[in-house]
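Input record, target 12 of the design panel.
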């Protein structure tokens, strides 16, 4: 009886692997795509900016190059969509989950579900505020506080030795998102070195060009003297430039502009003198992410924090760099 049962079981297993070999994606053992490929579920924030578009392309291209099967879900800027996508990845028993959290808070429950299912999670680009850091394997991305500090330091240097108040308006990224929180903090802490530098208005533009423009219009209407605009990304800065020009002012001259990202459109405006300084934030996280996925899948334990290398650009540097810009 026992013997007959085990023979039957072998049959089931063989049938199972034959089906998997026929391209079935539903691998009930949870150990891959059925054709030996690692399956990665990735939940993206959305398509709010040039940075995000470049980031999505980098992840899709490098998954392909690495031979990793990518299940890609676009959350359209909504946390609830990301939670649904992660739950669906768990049900599908993907090998690894990666995601770029739209906001920092509210992830503990779903991360715990992934952990209980034995699926490792990699944070890409943005952090979560979970106290229990065992809920994710690593966080791969930029240091946004450092970016805010670099933006602030450039401004401090510009006004060194000068007197009189400098009125700054700030376009924040998505409320509650790690890059918005940290870029605001790094900048504010650094400009505190010069009491003349004052943030007179600060509001979210949700990282989009359209909202950057709308909010800048209201800033221009309500604030008689604006010397500086600090925008948490290029897209909002580019939207604001439209508003500044429509108000009859010269961006980069009448109002100094600092942004973050350094995507091609931002770098073009910088080289044309419409933006004064850009702090780079690289969206090309795909190759590093795929390396980490492979490492995790083969039982390795990557560093808990993997930082991206980045620089800054002046108008002159942008002219030199622009022809090489990939995104
Ligand atoms: O700076 C912005 C995007 O999370 C670093 O999100 C990313 C930010 C990036 O929408 O343009």
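The sequence produced for target 12 reads:
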């Amino acid at each position: 009886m026992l013997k007959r049962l085990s023979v039957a079981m072998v049959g089931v297993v063989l049938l199972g692997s034959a089906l998997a070999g026929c391209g079935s994606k539903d691998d009930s053992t949870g150990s891959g795509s059925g054709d030996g490929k690692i399956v990665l579920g990735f939940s993206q924030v959305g398509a709010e900016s040039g940075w995000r578009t470049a980031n999505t392309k980098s992840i899709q291209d490098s998954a392909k190059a690495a031979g990793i099967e990518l299940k890609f879900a676009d959350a359209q800027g909504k946390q609830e969509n990301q939670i649904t996508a992660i739950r669906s990845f768990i049900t599908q028993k993907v090998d690894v989950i990666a995601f770029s959290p739209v906001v920092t808070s509210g992830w503990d429950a779903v991360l715990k579900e992934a952990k209980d299912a034995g699926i490792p999670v990699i944070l890409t680009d943005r952090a979560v505020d979970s106290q229990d850091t065992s809920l994710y394997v690593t966080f791969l991305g930029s240091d946004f506080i450092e970016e805010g500090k670099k933006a602030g330091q450039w401004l401090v240097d510009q006004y060194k030795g000068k007197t009189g108040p400098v009125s700054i308006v700030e376009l924040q990224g998505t409320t509650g998102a790690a890059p918005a929180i940290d870029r605001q903090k790094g900048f504010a802490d650094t400009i505190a070195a010069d009491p003349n530098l004052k943030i007179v208005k600060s509001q979210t533009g949700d990282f989009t060009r359209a909202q950057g423009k709308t909010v800048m219009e209201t800033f221009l209407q309500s604030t008689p003297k604006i010397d500086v605009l600090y925008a948490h990304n290029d897209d909002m800065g580019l939207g604001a430039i439209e508003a500044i020009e429509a108000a009859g002012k010269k961006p980069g001259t009448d109002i100094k502009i600092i942004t973050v990202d350094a995507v091609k459109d931002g770098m073009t405006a910088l080289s044309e003198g419409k933006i004064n300084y850009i702090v780079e934030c690289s969206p090309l996280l795909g190759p590093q992410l795929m390396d980490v996925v492979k490492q995790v899948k083969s039982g390795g334990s990557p560093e808990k924090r993997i930082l991206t290398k980045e620089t800054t650009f002046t108008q002159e540097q942008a002219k030199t760099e622009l022809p090489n810009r990939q995104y």
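The chain has eleven helices and twelve strands.
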